[in-house]
Amino acid sequence: MVKADKTKEKKEKESKHKQEIQSNEEPDVVEEEEDEARSFEELGLDPRLIRALNKKEISIAEPTPIQRVAIPLILQGKDVVARAKTGSGKTLAYLLPLLQKLLSTADSSRKKLSPSAFILVPSGELCQQVYKEVSSLIDSSKAQLKAVQLTSNMPASDLRNALAGPPDILVSTPSCVAKSLSVGVLKSESINDSLEILVLDEADLLLSFGYEEDLKALTALVPRRCQCLLMSATSSADVDKLKKLVLHNPYVLTLPEVEGVKDEVIPKNVQQFWVSCGDRDKLVHVLALLKLDLVQKKVLIFTNAIDMSFRLKLFLEKFGIKSAVLNAELPQNSRLHILEEFNAGLFDYLIATDDRETKEKEKANEGSLTETRKSKKHAKQKLDSEFGVVRGIDFKNVHTVINYDMPLSAAGYVHRIGRTGRAYSTGASVSLVSPDEMEILEEIKSFLGDDENNESNVISPYPLLTKNAVESLRYRAEDTAKSVTKIAVREARAQDLRNEILNSEKLKAHFEVNPRDLDLLKHDKVLSKKPPAPHLSDVPDYLLDATTKEASKMVKLTRAAMGNNNSARRQGPKRNFRKNKDPLKSFSAEGPRRGRKGGMKREGKDGDDTHKHKKKKNL
Ligand SMILES: Nc1ncnc2c1ncn2[C@@H]1O[C@H](COP(=O)(O)OP(=O)(O)OP(=O)(O)O)[C@@H](O)[C@H]1O
């Protein structure tokens, strides 16, 4: 068995080797070096940048596959389209060579009137994330470069101040660049004169976020000599459209993994599961997963509507489970702070509303009733159109993603699941699927190429959640669910918004001075008016059957072995975690299985979530 696995692994390795570079449109053949263990030095990266990578909180020692391929091409000045899985390190794949190129021209005496590099991303959250990454690289490498971020909520005076100088690198959204052009703080002629590198990150999302017109206006100003890079996690008609719009005869890099098998889009180190349950039963199912410790923390739960996320939060609170909510209604400072706290491990459960697709669908159906239109207009005004928590955000140490509601498309699923299993860490997803959502589950399965030969694309029934476990909590859950009324949900939502608006200004002022002071405002405060009944906090022993006890014991053991104690400043995983301790790989509610469909036979390569210094083939 072990030998067979090794042979398979070797074959995969060889075939990946051959396929790693696919230059579909570029006539030149790109030869990959034989030694695929090429280091950053061997890729030609500037020692200052390598030192900056070493200085990171989690030191980065070796390039990921997409970085190995993309960095040399970008350094050579090629236009590149890079498609690689979520969490595969695409950001550094373009940032490192971009910085290196700017470092080499930084001393040039030519006075520029506009930034040399534009990095455009679809959401405010991503803008902040990329800006932080680029700023930390600049600081650690002591490079004489300046980066700024522009967001749509900045007044024209702040935009002007930020662009004074000008900075070398601008990180922003397309609509904010359009705004800067329209208020005259960016000038068409200076862009045309100064722009050397244009990056469109999360390119598969830029058009769906409604930026097409803004991008068209900008690309008309991009000079022919400008190097253009396009990064995406999935391929789509939108990516093709953008490719045609901005790139000139680019190198197209994709990282398929196994010859003859449909491209993998979900990282191999993420195990995907589903649970069949009626809509009304979803609360009790999620309660069983969390309360009985049947999934590993931290947990990111997706809903499709803001009200649903508050209903879930209030419901869980009654059982002593504290969570925070994240949605487009909240002020941007609060959203960024919630993400920071969650990433730092200040709370374990985050309920994020991913309603972009629902909104898009609604928009497509718009026009039927004036009344409906009015109310939708009202709703849209309140929500931040640049909110995109699902897309591209680098969540740290999320071990489980739960789809409380199923996404409306396969691409939406890929992006949600991609919030776990980042870089070399392991993760799992559990989708709660109602009969109405079976169709989308099938669509997702066929998109992923769910078949016996392609382990990483299989979505299996979740083995750790048994019927008994659910039934043991049903009475309490149904009784409690009744107390979470529509009015309670509405009040909690309004209260949360009020709190966060008040917090938002405080946050802004405070974090400018104390960027690391995360404890100041916790976002997982209890919103229920009545305090939770004490007897609901504990699940009495007699309610649990032996199988569930065993399963939850194993999940806890695994967490302890992985060093995932979710303390505010996690020191990283313990190194001796063994693969066979992962209950998803070794546990069966129905006894040992032979086939792999039950989800027990999938063997991710990662025994732990250590991701430094360790060379892994698949991301
Ligand atoms: N060479 C590396 N070694 C170890 N970790 C890395 C390496 N490169 C990047 N990472 C880490 O991997 C994580 C994911 O990287 P990144 O956010 O760039 O992924 P991505 O491919 O852009 O994902 P998505 O498509 O979801 O946006 C980050 O925490 C990053 O610091």
UniProtKB/TrEMBL annotation:
<dbReference type="GO" id="GO:0005524">
    <property type="term" value="F:ATP binding"/>
</dbReference>
<feature type="region of interest" description="Disordered">
    <location>
        <begin position="1"/>
        <end position="39"/>
    </location>
</feature>
<dbReference type="InterPro" id="IPR001650">
    <property type="entry name" value="Helicase_C-like"/>
</dbReference>
<keyword id="KW-0347">Helicase</keyword>
<dbReference type="InterPro" id="IPR011545">
    <property type="entry name" value="DEAD/DEAH_box_helicase_dom"/>
</dbReference>
<protein>
    <recommendedName>
        <fullName>RNA helicase</fullName>
        <ecNumber>3.6.4.13</ecNumber>
    </recommendedName>
</protein>
<dbReference type="Pfam" id="PF00271">
    <property type="entry name" value="Helicase_C"/>
</dbReference>
<dbReference type="GO" id="GO:0003723">
    <property type="term" value="F:RNA binding"/>
</dbReference>
<feature type="compositionally biased region" description="Basic and acidic residues">
    <location>
        <begin position="600"/>
        <end position="611"/>
    </location>
</feature>
<dbReference type="InterPro" id="IPR014001">
    <property type="entry name" value="Helicase_ATP-bd"/>
</dbReference>
<feature type="region of interest" description="Disordered">
    <location>
        <begin position="559"/>
        <end position="619"/>
    </location>
</feature>
<comment type="similarity">
    <text>Belongs to the DEAD box helicase family. DDX56/DBP9 subfamily.</text>
</comment>
<feature type="compositionally biased region" description="Basic and acidic residues">
    <location>
        <begin position="1"/>
        <end position="20"/>
    </location>
</feature>
<dbReference type="GO" id="GO:0016787">
    <property type="term" value="F:hydrolase activity"/>
</dbReference>
<feature type="short sequence motif" description="Q motif">
    <location>
        <begin position="38"/>
        <end position="68"/>
    </location>
</feature>
<feature type="domain" description="Helicase C-terminal">
    <location>
        <begin position="288"/>
        <end position="470"/>
    </location>
</feature>
<dbReference type="GO" id="GO:0003724">
    <property type="term" value="F:RNA helicase activity"/>
</dbReference>
<feature type="compositionally biased region" description="Acidic residues">
    <location>
        <begin position="23"/>
        <end position="36"/>
    </location>
</feature>
<dbReference type="GO" id="GO:0005829">
    <property type="term" value="C:cytosol"/>
</dbReference>
<dbReference type="InterPro" id="IPR027417">
    <property type="entry name" value="P-loop_NTPase"/>
</dbReference>
<keyword id="KW-0067">ATP-binding</keyword>
<dbReference type="InterPro" id="IPR050079">
    <property type="entry name" value="DEAD_box_RNA_helicase"/>
</dbReference>
<feature type="domain" description="DEAD-box RNA helicase Q">
    <location>
        <begin position="38"/>
        <end position="68"/>
    </location>
</feature>
<feature type="domain" description="Helicase ATP-binding">
    <location>
        <begin position="71"/>
        <end position="253"/>
    </location>
</feature>
<dbReference type="Pfam" id="PF00270">
    <property type="entry name" value="DEAD"/>
</dbReference>
<keyword id="KW-0694">RNA-binding</keyword>
<keyword id="KW-0547">Nucleotide-binding</keyword>
<keyword id="KW-0378">Hydrolase</keyword>
<dbReference type="InterPro" id="IPR014014">
    <property type="entry name" value="RNA_helicase_DEAD_Q_motif"/>
</dbReference>
